[in-house]
Amino acid sequence: MPASILEEVHDLLEVALNRKKATLLDCPSCGSVHVAQVLGDNGGISYVCTACGHSWS
Asked: According to the lineage, what is the superkingdom (predicted)?
């Protein structure tokens, strides 16, 4: 258990930063993080960049 609230906050910030890096998805075309997940025609998952319009799966 942390000895102070500052240690607790520090630990939580580390977890949040690691989670953010793990879930970020960048557009392979322009590098934007403005990406939407969409369902494909065959039920697969595809992605569309809302910045440049590039799509991929």
From this structure: Bacteria
52 occurs within a structural domain? yes
Q: Rounded to an integer, what distance in angstroms lies between the CA atom of residue 53 and that of residue 10?
A: 38
pLDDT of res. 2: 52
Domain holding 27, by residue range, is: 23-56
Number of structural domains the chain divides into: 1
pLDDT one-digit tens code per residue, 36-46: 999 877 888 99
Write out the two tokens for 51.
């910045």
* Assigned token pair, 42: 């065959």
**Is 32 a member of any domain?**
yes
Residue 29 to residue 33: CA distance in whole angstroms: 11
